[in-house]
Amino acid sequence: MQAFELDRPERLRAHLAVRRKLYEVRADGQGGQHWQSVTAEDPAAFCADAATPSFSAKSFFFAERELLFRFDGGQFLSALPEVAPQVLFGLHACDLRAVAYQDRFFAEDPFYQTRRNATLLVGVDCLDSCAGGFCTTVDSGPDVRAGTADLILLPRASGPWLLLVASAAGTAAIEGLALPPASGAWQAERQGNSAQVAQQQGAQADIVEGVARLNAGLIEAATWERLGLQCLGCSGCTTVCPTCSCFAPLDQSSAAGGVQRERVWDSCLYQGFQKEASGHNPSATPGSRVQRFWFHKFGDDFKARFEHYGCVGCGRCDRVCPGGIGVHGVMHKVAQA
Question: In the chain, which residues have pLDDT < 70?
């Protein structure tokens, strides 16, 4: 991994935006933060906010709704997306870990891969913990992990930023910037920053104990059913979760003639998500659906398959759940059950 000094991140942003469509998280003027398109001439300062935006980068690769194919009565017509080269600028380590998780889940999906292959990922190390975050517990941050980004920004309290080049695509992307190499002390600097965030986040005893009890099969069905009573089936958690990937096919008539199939986001917390044609529903109760969801996030079987848990410690589910059963709420009750 090569390291360079960068006088200001806006210089890198402008350089990358010349040949690519660049997106950055910006305030929306209504108290929220969302991904917005930024041009090379944009004068606004880059803000390395510790707080994750309301929505992750998931929809850039796994569209909320997209056409898969159309059948005109005689032949099937594919509909792969046309994606211009793009940059996601300033991704947090947890969201980059989620992209890497989705890369494995959608490894054979041409729609996902078409978008993913056209995208340059620019991450940023976190110097402080976000509210409710526990990335250090699930090994997804606060420093951007190797293999999850093409370029990595390291903010500093004073002096120039640090720019790490983490892939061949990143090397090609900064060609022409002529940046001075960084000193060899940057590794220790990153380690110190990570230790500081870990101290801020603490031991997260409920998370650790809850995951252990879940995988040991020590949680009674009655506990899940009590938690299920708090679930409104709103799909807020699955919408904002950066690793959730449930979808459903939607067949309907096409305006061009024939029929077409679309793929739309779905949620395993919906009552009919697993209902079979026979009428049997293996997740008929709210408690069984809540249990299924959290096994997908913290099950050891999923960790063995994808190398990491499906939860990256961003805490978004806590922020959006009206029933109070985001990750901290559930793991506290599961740890005490």
Answer: none
- What is the C-alpha separation between 162 and 57, in angstroms, rounded? 23
DSSP state for residue 57 in the 8-state scheme: S
195 inside domain: yes
Predicted confidence (pLDDT) per residue in 53-66, tens digit: 889 999 999 999 99
For residues 163 and 45, membership in a common domain is answered with yes
Task: Give the 3-state secondary structure of residue 85.
Answer: coil
197, 304: one domain: no
Nearest-angstrom CA–CA distance, 136 and 289: 27
Which residue in 287, 286, 297 sits closest to 211, CA to CA?
297
**Number of compact structural domains in the chain:** 2
Same domain, 292 and 181: no
Residue with tokens 């660049």: 22
H helices of 109-185, in order, are 110-117, 168-173
Q: 3-class SS at 111?
A: helix
Digit-coded pLDDT (tens) for 179-233: 999 987 899 999 999 999 999 999 999 999 999 999 999 999 999 999 999 999 9
CB 5 within 8 A of CB 162: yes
Residue 76 lies in a domain: yes
Co-location of 272 and 242 in the same domain? yes
Locate 203 and state its tokens: 């031991």
Whole-number pLDDT of residue 74: 82
